[in-house]
């Protein structure tokens, strides 16, 4: 749910911050009576950890995972949590086993291929927490668990921790230090626990961490190897996750054992180079194709993979599960009451859960929940809006893919129905070649030019303020062909067609307006037919091939964009001829300590405008169908009035977003422990009559919601203040 209020609602931000304080955990951290770790020990620990974090170049390992989930307390709300597995009635104990192959390639490519799986869950969809966050972990890196937590082994992050010496032990003639890790304040990015550290080579022998992120509290005990390069890798992990949310209490206890086949380390400071001809091809490091027909799911066959026998209690869970399956198979008919419950249960699934329908030989259909806060949006100008999305996918031989995505949205304030749909056919997977079609009644668009001319009529008695003469409906059709001829260079070319007409909400009053429009030769409808080409270039793009399909990963370089459009007057009823140029440079720079800096610099102009009152700058397009919180790269202008940029023929812009766990609220984090990220926004815009427009903002994110406050100025004078709220709880 997105909310946006202007001017006097800044007080709501203060109220939210106060509420966060009330939801926080304990305010202070009590330190045990232990000696503080010496500076010498810490310096050695941080120095060696920095080197060890880059030591492993590649490894392959077998992983046996065994997990057990116990349901301590539940209510009906548990079924409304996205990605949560469906609980069986009166069943509170579940077991899961898997055997997989792990292939790691520096710096952070983890490929896990499941070979066998056995479980008592009623279905394989859903989980409490993604185990890969814990399995794909380098304890020596500056951040751990997929960049969610600040590592206590990093020197820069150490200012958030206290270190106390608990024990010094002699193990085979080598001193081992047990160091307690105590966060200076409660926060979702910090952990507590202890670690056993070798006093000569300063390697971690054992580490225990406790923490909390999202709605999960975790405890992780990791034992490292003892020989060769395995000293820097875990051989056993014991994970306990406590899920406590909305009156539901579930606990997962899992253990993982790793057996390494080959481990290679960095030699002479240089990593092993790819054997592929293209240095950015990571295909050999990804093995994502998995033949599901070869996946072992039978319990008896799984015995051949299990390195340790099951306990009697664990084996009994399988026996009870087999009895439940047989009992379900024997129930041929259902009572009327049960039929009713089954029906309303299915209705509930449709209302609050995304669901998939697989049609053999045809494809799959995915539908978003009919009731989902994430599909609702509210703003001061637009009011309350709702969105529903459907997805159809069909995979053809040779990896060709057809995707159809219809969407529908309704604005309750303006009583307007919005529809749009897109069709994409990926015909050349290796080169990302596709044909794309988009159509809809799209965004209502403003053009103050018409209104300004009408207001200039002498002795006009009309109340233009109440007439939405600058408000046009827009029906559009886009037909494009897209291709990536070389790595990182993406070319999109096609035709864009618009049919725009004045919204007639007050027909009696508007008739007089139309008479004046005709005398002034001002049109009430505008059509355009525009060939368009868009070129995006990202140097140094890393990618891999999943079968025949090319999958772009990331690049350390910015993306350069050039967008050109030429309107052709008279073609298919087109009323205007125009020429538009836009350029854009954007990038997200990942910093250490879970920080990032995103920027965006761009501009655009019309070199020709012939009977064209609608600018349609690509960088300022907005959707009336809600899309949730979307900062875009570098951020966007939250308070900018559409009248400005739709009556201008040129602009220059720059936006920046800085994200970090600790910015303004760092001194208060002992009270605001649920905050995950803070954000600083800055943007500046130059266009006619705006020299400049400046917008600054501050936001914070939690696992439940995101909130931000923004302030703007025009030509050096205060303009407005606004507030934005997004409900993120069910955003999966």
What does this entry look like structurally?
The structure is a single chain. The protein has 732 residues and is mostly beta strands. It has 2 domains: 31-321; 372-727, membrane protein fhac: a member of the omp85/tpsb transporter family (Porin, Beta Barrel), CATH 2.40.160.50. It is 13% helix and 46% strand. It has 9 helices and 34 strands. The protein has a 17-stranded mixed barrel. A 10-stranded antiparallel β-sheet has the order 4-3-2-13-12-11-10-9-8-7. β16 (376-379) and β17 form a beta hairpin. The relative contact order is 0.11. Residues 1-29, 288-294, 332-337, 340-360, 457-469 and 624-629 have low confidence and may be disordered.
Treating each run of at least 4 consecutive H or I residues as one helix, how many helices? 9
Helical amount: 10-25%
Low-confidence stretches: 1-29, 288-294, 332-337, 340-360, 457-469, 624-629
Largest sheet: 17 strands, mixed, barrel
CATH architecture of the largest domain: Beta Barrel
